[in-house]
Design brief:
The protein has four helices and two strands. It is mainly α.
Length: about 170
């Protein structure tokens, strides 16, 4: 097995390029030992074999690739599977549109319809078990509608107090 000098990945003997990082693998040359050159004759022909019954020596795992970006042209890692978002519920979008429109035209009716559509949309979304989306739209429509209705009530109270004060002072 050939190991890449760049990332440490193990590759097949006949491979010319690393299967992990794509770098060209160095050609490993077998050291040539001449017979009788500082080695006893029994080591020239055979390698040391473990005796029967002894466990094999532990093998070291391949080195992990170094941190950092991969070379150009290679993916950064496994590509995550893309799950598209579920389509939003139409009532959730209607709730948001009516809540925003209630500031511009038909103040009370738009806000009340925004609340009704928003709560119905939230129920539909929760009962769909992930088939329908749009929960943020429905929540935004509900919040904007409540804020608008609160402002209408406060402005109504202010006008009523001013009219009452004006009537008492005359």
């Amino acid at each position: 097995m050939k190991f890449c000098e760049n990332c440490g990945q193990g590759n097949q003997e006949e491979a010319s390029f690393c299967s992990n990082c794509g770098k060209q693998l160095a050609v490993a040359e077998e050291p040539k030992v001449e017979a009788g050159a500082d080695m006893p004759p029994e080591q020239e022909v055979t390698q040391a074999q473990p005796s029967p019954g002894t466990p094999p020596p532990p093998q070291t795992p391949a080195a992990a690739p170094p941190p950092g970006p991969p070379p150009p042209g290679y993916p950064a890692g496994p590509v995550p599977y893309y799950h598209p978002a579920p389509p939003p519920d139409g009532l959730a979008i209607a709730s948001l549109v009516l809540a925003i429109a209630s500031f511009l035209a038909c103040p009370v009716i738009g806000a009340v319809l925004g609340l009704v559509f928003g709560y119905i949309a939230l129920r539909n979304i929760s009962e769909s078990n992930g088939v329908m989306g749009g929960e943020p739209f429905a929540k935004a429509g509900i919040i904007i509608s409540w804020v608008h209705l609160g402002m209408v009530v406060l402005i109504g109270l202010f006008i009523a107090i001013v009219v009452l004060i004006a009537a008492v002072s005359h």
